[in-house]
Each structure stands twice: as structure tokens, then as C-alpha cells.
Amino acid sequence: MTPESPEDKSRYRRYLELLTGSLDDKKRYRQVKARMGRLPGDYRIAYDALERYLMFFGRADGPGWLEMYEDLADLFEQSAANATPIRDVFGDDPIEFVETFIQNYPVGRWMARERDRFTDAVARAAGEQDRRAS
Questions:
Q1: Average confidence score pLDDT of the chain
Q2: What is the DSSP letter of 92?
Q3: What is the mean pLDDT of residues 121-132?
Q4: What is the DSSP string of 37-90?
Q5: Phi, psi angle pair for 2, to nearest 5°
Q6: Neighbouring residues of 108: CB distance < 8 A, sequence distance ≥ 6
């Protein structure tokens, strides 16, 4: 049996990442999850709820999605270390907090594509020229 060359491993990894996505990103995300798992109870509950919201309504596939989660991890760790009350982190309206927060990160590819598709469909339905044709 011959040992696998670094080139073969690199090629194998490229093929694997085509199917699964970046392995480095997955490793970084697992590190964020581990950090959040070490938070005190109330902070962990709030982070888990925020993460669930972001999975449905956030920008989970854009170039900045991982940075967003790392920034949230930093925020929650600092808040826990300073004993900042949860309500002081989120304010009176948690939805406003998260919507304002995600504005700092790029829109995901699928979201941008679906927004364009929706806008184009409305323009066609209104009898307007396809906006990309102009």
C-alpha cells in the first residue's frame, strides 16, 4: 500500500468541500458552539434562542455568517464576564436588536437571489420591463 500524497489529499478535500462546504468553517463554527456551551445558564438560553432565530431569519450563507456568530460569541462572553443583565444586552425589543445587528453583515447568496427573483416577479406582474434588462 502506498502512502497518500499531499496532492491527493488536497484534491480529495476539494471534492469533499464541494459537497459539504468548507471544513475550516465547520471547525470554526464548532468552536463557537463550544464557547457558547460554556456560558452561564441564562446567557446560554438567550444565545440558543438567538441562534435559532438567525437560522430561520438570518444571513446564514453569506460570506460574513461565521464572523457574525463569532461576534455574537464575543458579545455574550463579555456580557457574562461583566454580569450584564440579559435585558441590557437585548434591550426592550429583541427583534429590533437582532435585525439591527445583522445589518452589519452581508446578505446571504440565497437571500439575495430570492429577493431579486421576488422583485423581478412583481415587476413582471405589474407589466414593467424586467429590471435586470435595463
A1: 82
A2: S
A3: 77
A4: HTS-HHHHHHHHHHHHHHHHHS-TTSTTHHHHHHHHHHHHHHHHHTT--HHHHH
A5: -95, 145
A6: 59, 60, 61, 62, 65
Give the Cα separation of 31 and 25 in Å (integer): 10
| pTM for this predicted structure | 0.67
Question: 62 near 105, Cβ under 8 Å?
Answer: yes
Give burial (CB, 10 Å; 0-12/13-18/19+) of 67: middle
Determine the Cα–Cα distance for residues 38 and 40; give it in Å rounded to an integer: 7
As a residue count, the chain comes to 134
- Cell 405589474 locates to 126
125 alpha-carbon distance from chain centroid: 33
Q: What's residue 45's pLDDT?
A: 94
Q: Give the whole-angstrom CA distance, residue 130 versus residue 11.
A: 41
